[in-house]
Design a protein that fits this description.
The structure holds two protein chains of two kinds. By secondary structure, chain A is of the alpha/beta class. Chain A contains nine helices and ten strands. The longest helix of chain B has about 40 residues. The chains are: A alpha/beta, B mainly alpha.
Chain lengths: ~240, ~325
């Protein structure tokens, strides 16, 4: 299958510190890719480079064939991004935020599309609510809504379940699956929760100190490890040491 | 609207809605208006007292038998009352510009919304243009409201109505004020988009404001030989203009340095232009607008030049997302 995300020898250094070390990775269309790693492993740096927020020191990456550095105006049109602890314009309502981000992404009739997306995410009641009045879970939904308004081919989620309660986590997991299956979105998800990976992802990669130490399809992973506990043991064996 | 300009307007409209919602425009221009009105009230009261003194003196002379036709009617120049108002724009307007500029970037950085905006298919220049347009409208609208209130106050407090010529002069001053506040807006924005730490950006912007608005003009004024005696040393000593020029030639280097310090200040250029146009400086009292503009056009060009240079730096300098999002 044609990769929608191609990463080749990607390196990001800050002086003597190497945050990402020659990462090479292909993500095929329709995958839900779980990027596992301790805090500080380089997962967010990877997403920041793929969303053109950061420039790599060396190496290259492209989204749907558009280079994230030289063709960033094109590659950004293909992506949606939900940062960890998503924060929107607090004084604006959900609808106003969505119209703003939708219009910036070139969405025609952003108002009606906003409502459509809120219904898809099962939260049309949030339309007129201001962001500062919302719970963490509600904000996360609006954050997800702003990322999919323009029907991107690839959706980047950075620790999407961070700070959510068990119910919020389950709802978000269902939404991710829905977006992947119904909207045909390829999803690249950073996480450090093994349980999320086994329940949501179709393939995984494990990053340790900027280096990709393991990559496999979820079927292969589950066949090899059988359950979350065994996978967790394996993860801790390839990513040793204290979390940053 | 072309595809290139659409994102610019979307960003500008968002900043306008934000300014309206957070009432920042109302608070800042309200503060400037209040300060201006106080100075205007004081000046108008002083002028009214002068006028009453004249009436008393005139009535006394008439009662002593002096023909009223022999008495020269005093001339009042209402725009002269705006001296304090202009000085407030110099000081408070600069602060308002910095606060708006800093806020335009700091709110996005602090809220981490900049990350979301910068992952959209828009160029750095479109982002900056959107900020300049939205906040430019906020500044122009705020100053227009302040000038309108000041002109109404001239009538309400001093009982002096303004003619067409006076409104023309106010219009030119408003344009210069918008450029002036715009310069400080761009300074605040540039620093807030450049510095690693936001508080450092604000401190640096205020350090520049202090140097340009308070220190440089003060040094220039204090070192001016003509300012050593109230009313002007040359005038007090009855030294004619050609002699004054001859005397000043012997202080050419000193005068170049002193004038250079003054010239570095946008506040001084705004003040010189406004004081001339409004007739606050006696030399220009009653002079036609066209003639004043001919004499003081370099002040306007200076303001336009700095404004354009800062806009150019902002538009041409690529944004550094690494720095802008790292703090979060």
């Amino acid at each position: 299958m044609t990769p929608v995300i191609r990463i080749k020898e990607l390196t990001k250094s800050y002086g003597a510190f190497t945050a990402l070390d020659r990462l090479t990775l292909d993500i095929a269309k329709g995958e839900v890719f779980g990027f596992l790693g301790h805090n500080g492993a380089g997962k967010t740096t990877t997403i920041h480079i793929l969303t053109s927020l950061l420039r790599p020191t060396t190496g290259s990456a492209d989204i749907m064939g558009a280079d994230v550095v030289t063709g960033s105006m094109v590659s950004r049109g293909h992506i949606g991004y939900v940062p960890e602890n998503v924060r929107l314009y607090e004084t604006l309502t959900a609808r106003e935020n969505l119209i703003f981000f939708g219009e910036l992404s070139g969405v025609q009739e952003a108002g009606s599309r906003a409502l459509e997306v809120l219904e898809l995410l099962e939260c049309p009641d949030l339309e007129r609510k201001k962001i500062f009045e919302m719970s963490k879970g509600q904000r996360q939904r609006i954050g997800l809504a702003q990322a999919i308004l323009h029907k991107p081919s690839v959706l980047f989620l950075d620790e999407p379940t961070s700070g959510l309660d068990p119910l919020g986590i389950r709802q978000l997991r269902n939404l991710i699956t829905k977006l992947n299956q119904q909207q045909d979105m390829t999803i690249f998800m950073n996480t450090h929760l093994i349980s999320e990976v086994s329940k949501t992802c179709t393939s995984i990669g494990v990053l340790n100190r900027g280096k990709l130490v393991y990559q496999a399809g979820i079927d292969e992973v589950m066949m090899r490890f059988g359950n979350d506990r065994a996978l967790e043991d394996f993860y801790l064996s390839v990513v040793p040491g204290k979390a940053a | 609207m072309t595809n290139q300009l659409k994102p610019v307007w979307i960003l500008a409209a968002k900043d306008l809605a934000d300014a309206r919602r957070t009432k920042i425009l109302l608070v800042l221009s309200g503060f400037l208006t209040l300060a201006g009105l106080v100075s205007l009230a004081v000046a108008a009261a002083a002028q009214k007292a002068d006028y009453l003194t004249y009436i008393e003196a005139r009535d006394l002379l008439v009662s002593l038998g002096k023909p009223i036709a022999d008495l020269v009617e005093p001339m009042f120049f209402p725009l002269k009352l705006l001296r304090g108002f202009i000085e407030h724009i110099e000081i408070i307007g600069g602060i308002i510009g910095i606060v708006l500029g800093y806020r335009a970037a700091a709110v996005e950085r602090g809220n981490a919304t900049l990350q979301l905006v910068l992952t959209r298919p828009l160029s750095d220049a479109q982002f900056i243009l959107g900020k300049l347009l939205g906040n430019g409208i906020v500044i122009a609208a705020g100053l227009s409201a302040t000038f309108l209130i000041a002109s109404l106050a001239l009538y309400a407090i001093g009982g002096i109505g303004l003619g067409f010529d006076s409104y023309g002069r106010l219009g030119i001053t408003l344009m210069a004020a918008t450029l002036y506040v715009g310069i400080f807006f761009m300074l605040g924005l540039l620093f807030a988009l450049t510095f690693r730490k936001l508080p450092s950006a604000l401190l640096a912007a205020f350090a520049v404001w202090l140097a340009l608005v308070l220190v440089a003009p003060q040094i220039g004024d204090t070192l001016d030989p003509d300012n050593q005696v109230a009313g002007g040393i040359f005038r007090t000593l009855n030294i004619a203009k050609p002699q004054e020029i001859e005397i000043l030639k012997t202080f050419a280097t000193y005068e170049t340095v002193r004038d250079g310090i003054e010239q570095a200040s946008p506040a001084k250029h705004f003040e010189r232009l406004s004081f001339a146009i409004l007739g606050i400086k006696d030399t220009y009292l009653g002079m036609p607008i066209a003639q004043i503009m001919q004499e003081r056009i370099h002040d306007l060009w200076w303001l336009i030049g700095v404004f354009t240079a800062l806009a150019g730096i902002l538009l041409l300098r690529p944004l550094n997302p690494t720095r802008l999002i790292k703090e979060n």
